[in-house]
Each structure stands twice: as C-alpha cells, then as structure tokens.
C-alpha cells in the first residue's frame, strides 16, 4: 500500500518579491525525506525556526513546490485542490485568521458571531460526528474513562459563545471543532493545543488517537508541549535548521533513550543549541560575524535597469501563476523547482 504522506527530497526557499528565491539565499528546508502510512501518528519536533511550520504548510498545499517533492494520498498537495476542499486533507495552524480585502488581508477571527453559526455553517457534515465533538452528555458506568466520556465529550462547546467575547481557549475549541467536522484522512496540526486546558487537550488527543486506530487516519502534530505524549505518537520526526535529523518509530526512540519523551527531546535541542554556540564562537574568533548574513528577498536592491532579470513586481508575488510582464516566462511547477538542479 502506498504511503498516505510522502516527502521526497523536499527543498524550499521562500520566494522574494519577484516570485523567485533570492540569489544566494540558503534553503530553509533542505533535502527532507520521510513517509507515513495510514493509521500512523507523527510528532514533528524541532527548535523555534527549525522549519516545522513551513513543512506543515507545504504538506497542507499552502506553498507551491514541485509535485514530486510532496505527495498526500498519492496526489500533489498544492496542485490538487480537491484534497483540501473535500476535507480529506485538513490543516489546523496556530493562528486562526480570515481574509478581509483591504484590511490587512488577514485578521483574527474575533467578529461578533456565535459558535453555533460558525459550526453549523459548514455543509456536508455528519450530524453524529458534529454532536460527538461539541456536546457533553451523561456518562454511563460502561462508557466512563476516568471522569470523562470519550463518546460524548470531546470539546464541550457552548453554542451560544460569541467569538468576540470568548476566551482564547474557547475560540480555539471552536477552531478545532470546525477543522475536525469532516472525516479527514490526513490531519496536520501546528501547535493547535496551546490554548486548551488540561482536560480539553487530553480529550482531544484521545479522540485523535481513536481516529487513527479506527478509521486509519494519518496525523502529523508539531508541538512543544509533551504532557501525555509519551505513548501517543507512533513515529518521531526531528528537524534542525531545515534538515532532517531523525525519522523513526517511537520504539526506536525508546531504545535510544531511557528518559521520558520530553527529556529526550530536551537533550536533542540542548545538544543542538550547544553546537550552534560553539560554531558562532569559532566564527567570532576568526573575525567573522556570529550569524550568517540574511539574504534580503522582500525588496529589490539596486538599479532595476541594471538588473533586468529581477523585474520588480511581475505579478508572481501576488499569487499569480502567470507573469504580468510581456515576454516573461511563466512558472511550470514551482518557484523552487530550480533548487533541484
């Protein structure tokens, strides 16, 4: 059976104002390869700025790369828009925003609207699945697990909540509920539980584990919170500086370390931090800047007349796939395809 998620030699650099990677800019993600099968739960780990969110966004079809680099359910994550529109591929990021023309384009979801209107406004949803996510019910002795009922209490949402008055945690519950309403096959989570209380987070993780075990869903979860995760994932993927360091089953990690998952990851990040400090110290002793020079890609520097190959605002940066400049070549696959050469 083919993997549900397959990343093959993924290399990516954010494009500059002209839609192409800035000359000399190092790849943010470089030659990353791993795959996951149906039913597997993967923790995507790494320090701040390692590239976890970028990888999840690429998997979620939010950045265009060569179709051969990223396949979800055997299809191109970016080019096959039916993946996300059908609900088979669901992405839940740390920030909940909506597009508003001429108002910064993206603003936080804080308008005066009820949770009920937002949740019930999504069409094509199984009512039983929706009720399972939002309602709390009576706990029978047969169904009781600790003090909560997995079948009837997941997010425990009050449908009368008004989004502009709800707390961050309440708004997060509504966001998660809307992202889980359709029966996903692949779910991408980027620090989505950061605002949840202990009970809501525990219930959600148990529900997601059940989705993988019973329906064969695949989940990739990037997080820095490790409470209750020692036995939750089936696989661990560790990224550092945009490069793959580790992609193994959880059992292999347990064989490598007798510590808890949090302490194990802490040791990895501490070693990474110490190596970074040693490298910066060596650069400083050689009279070099401690940090590598950042290549400016958000604006064109110099005289455009002398840099005809770096046309200012040719339309690609606005999301177009065709140039607005007469005679310019259009993209075939991706602004990052050149990185594979």
From TrEMBL:
Keywords: ATP-binding, Nucleotide-binding
Signal peptide: none
SUPFAM superfamilies, per the entry: P-loop containing nucleoside triphosphate hydrolases
Statement: the UniProt record of this protein carries the keyword Manganese: no
Domain ABC transporter per the UniProt entry, residue ranges: 5-266
Single Gene Ontology MF annotation: ATP hydrolysis activity
Keyword check for ATP-binding: yes
Pfam families: ABC_tran
Protein known as: ABC transporter domain-containing protein
The species this protein was found in: Zea mays
Gene transcribed to yield this protein: LOC100191337
């Amino acid at each position: 059976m083919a993997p549900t998620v397959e990343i093959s030699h993924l290399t990516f650099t954010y494009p500059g104002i002209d839609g192409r990677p800035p000359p000399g800019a190092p790849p943010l993600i470089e030659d990353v390869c791993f795959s996951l099968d149906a039913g597997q739960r993967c923790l995507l780990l790494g320090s701040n700025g390692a590239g976890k969110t970028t990888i999840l966004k690429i998997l979620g079809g939010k950045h265009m790369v060569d179709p051969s680099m990223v396949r979800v359910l055997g299809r191109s994550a970016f080019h096959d828009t039916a993946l996300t529109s059908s609900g088979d591929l669901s992405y839940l990021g740390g920030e909940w925003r909506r597009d508003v023309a001429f108002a910064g384009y993206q603003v936080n979801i804080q308008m005066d609207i009820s949770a009920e209107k937002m949740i019930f406004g999504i069409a094509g949803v199984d009512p039983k699945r929706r009720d399972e996510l939002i309602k709390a019910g009576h706990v029978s002795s047969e169904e009781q697990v600790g003090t909560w009922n997995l079948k009837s209490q997941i997010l425990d949402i009050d449908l009368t909540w008004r989004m502009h008055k709800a707390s961050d945690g309440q708004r997060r519950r509504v966001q998660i509920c809307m992202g889980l309403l359709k029966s996903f096959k692949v779910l991408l989570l980027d620090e989505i539980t950061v605002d949840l209380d202990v009970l809501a987070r525990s219930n959600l993780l148990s529900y997601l584990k059940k989705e993988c075990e019973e329906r064969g869903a695949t989940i990739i979860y990037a997080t820095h919170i490790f409470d209750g995760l020692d036995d939750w994932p089936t696989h661990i993927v560790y990224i550092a500086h945009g490069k793959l360091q580790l992609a193994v089953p959880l059992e292999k990690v347990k064989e490598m370390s007798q510590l808890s998952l949090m302490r194990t990851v802490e040791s990895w990040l501490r070693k990474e931090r110490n190596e970074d400090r040693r490298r910066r110290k060596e650069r400083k002793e050689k009279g070099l800047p401690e940090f590598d020079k950042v290549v400016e890609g958000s604006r064109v520097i110099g005289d455009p007349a002398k840099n005809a190959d770096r046309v200012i605002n040719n339309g690609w940066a606005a999301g177009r796939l065709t140039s607005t400049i007469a005679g310019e070549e259009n993209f075939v696959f991706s602004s990052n395809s050149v990185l594979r050469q």
